[in-house]
Design brief:
Structural class: mainly alpha
Largest sheet: 2 strands, antiparallel
Strand order of the largest sheet: 1-2
Number of helices: 7
Shape: elongated
Distance between the termini: 41 Å
Radius of gyration: 20 Å
């Protein structure tokens, strides 16, 4: 998936450099490959921290308004039609993907590209804590079956999107400031990568909506 999502195309000399490996401790290490993955690792780490932050926020600063919204959405998932549930998940994903996309089109966007996955994971942590506090083990079961698999896939997709946004934004910044860059980034490829991610999220939402339609009414949380 990394090869499919990767945005960057190297010029001739950059491609050759990418293929070179450094001998370290008897093992060949692709240094440029590690550099290309660093933002994904950073975003993944921040996402884990964000989930913990969301849990702590619920524990220490629970918000009645947010809790009411979560309860309403839970009733929505247990009672509405397949199309309504699907559209809800798609709209939710589009919000985060759009923030990440437009951050990549700004020359200052690299500094805010971490926000979409971070904010989403704070929400995930808060929701998970809410379900556990309100419904105990039944709430955990509901999350494990119907929410967490979907959140994991779409959050991973969002991390890939944010990673591409960092490189696009950095490229735009270097272009504007006339700084040399070894990356030859294509806007067409940037759009294509986001289209692929949107398709992945849509398929995931379609499958998850079907599971919710059949299983959510059968899981008694009270």
């Amino acid at each position: 998936m990394t090869k499919v999502i990767s945005l960057r195309k190297k010029r001739g000399y950059a491609t050759n450099a990418h293929l070179k490996k450094r001998q370290t401790g008897g093992k060949k290490v692709n240094i440029n490959g590690l550099q290309a993955e660093k933002y994904k690792v950073i975003f993944a780490f921040l996402s884990i921290v964000a989930v913990l932050c969301g849990s702590l926020i619920y524990k220490n600063y629970p918000n009645d308004t947010v809790n009411t919204i979560i309860a309403e959405k839970l009733n929505f998932l247990q009672s509405e039609s397949y199309i309504q549930i699907l559209l809800y998940f798609i709209k939710l994903d589009i919000i985060f993907i759009s923030i990440s996309f437009f951050a990549g089109t700004s020359f200052m966007g690299s500094s805010i590209s971490f926000l979409p996955p971070f904010l989403k994971c704070v929400l995930i942590g808060y929701i998970g804590s809410y379900f556990y506090n309100e419904f105990e083990l039944k709430g955990v079961l509901f999350c494990l079956l119907l929410l967490y698999p979907y959140f994991i896939i779409t959050t991973a997709s969002l991390i890939f999107a944010s990673n591409e946004s960092v490189y696009m934004s950095t490229y735009i910044f270097k272009t504007i400031t006339n700084k040399n860059t070894a990356d030859n980034i294509s806007v067409r490829l940037y759009l294509l990568r986001y289209l692929i991610l949107i398709i992945i999220n849509t398929v995931c939402a379609a499958v998850n909506s079907g599971l919710i339609l059949f299983l959510a009414p059968k899981i008694s949380l009270r």
